[in-house]
Design goal:
Length: 261
């Protein structure tokens, strides 16, 4: 493979299911209008007209989101977010970084390329929900990018297979909001467990109160534990994306949690 293929956060099956759903709803609507009479015709026509509109909206949104996130499209939002997050990691020779939920390897590889004398590990669960992502895809992408200082291994963010204080930096992008847990602050603490004293972190995600609870008190707790320069930076004010774009793509409340242990 000569070119990396980071795939898309919107899987192709979403577009396919939108197209099939729209076509089936419209065909059934036409069949009911042509063949039925009376109340059945009225009820089924209304139901399938509504279904057609909803499926069509879903299809159009999937195509818009797919194009926005595409690495080869015009907007390249995923690439912008990855590169900007990677920009927060500065490693010296021999230091190591961990990317949690590395997907297709984009952020781990971006950090590795920016810090060629450091070593990066990308880990992911590689479950069913992002079936296009795999450890092999990550390795192929690293090879295509000529990034020899990055390796990949399987690992779950909720119980990382790494020692306490192993890494000089930890990064992650849009992973924890996907994890079905009531306590995402616990997942953050599990991440920070692997960080050395003096190490830095840059974690980008949808930090809504609904998903994370009270992040102000979490940040105060980190300061009490001795962490420094902890900040939750809004990335939907033009920094990574516009507010309008974040609403359209369901990325409202995207923020970058940064700091030093
Ligand atoms: C939206 S993708 C983001 C991938 C990558 N971070 C990026 O920026 O391109 C979410 C990723 O989180 C991973 N993931 C979800 N739950 C996980 C868990 N409990 N542990 C590790 N990875 C997980 C998924 O497998 C998927 O690769």
């Amino acid at each position: 493979m000569n070119q990396p293929d980071y795939k898309n956060w919107i899987p192709k099956w979403m577009i396919c299911s939108g197209a099939v759903g729209t076509a089936v709803s419209v065909i059934l609507l036409l069949i009911f209008i042509i063949t039925l009479r009376g109340t059945a015709r009225a009820v089924l026509s209304i139901v399938f007209a509504l279904a057609s509109v909803l499926m069509c909206v879903y299809l159009v949104w999937s195509v818009i989101a797919y194009n926005a996130f595409s690495y080869t499209g015009r907007r390249r939002l995923s690439k912008d977010i990855i590169e900007s997050t990677a920009g927060f990691v500065k490693l010296e020779s021999g230091q190591t970084a961990l990317d949690i939920g590395c997907g297709s390897g984009a952020l781990a590889i971006a950090v590795a390329k920016r810090n060629p004398s450091a070593k990066v590990i990308g880990c992911d669960r590689w479950g069913k929900e992002y079936a296009e992502f795999s450890m092999k895809l990550c390795a192929d992408n690293a090879k295509a990018e000529k990034a020899e200082n990055v390796v990949f291994q399987k690992g779950d963010a909720t119980a990382l297979p790494f020692a306490d204080e192993q890494f000089d930096a930890v990064v992650s992008n849009y992973v924890y909001h996907n994890i079905p847990t009531k306590d995402r602050q616990a997942v953050l603490l599990e991440t920070l467990r692997t960080l050395k004293k003096g190490g830095t972190f840059a974690i980008h995600d949808i930090f809504s109160r609904q998903k994370y609870g009270d992040m102000d008190s979490f940040i105060r707790k980190l300061y009490d534990m001795g962490y420094e320069k902890v900040e939750l930076i809004n990335t939907t004010n033009g920094r990574f994306m516009s507010a309008k774009e974040s609403k359209l793509l369901f990325l409202r409340e995207s923020k970058l949690l940064v700091g030093k242990k």
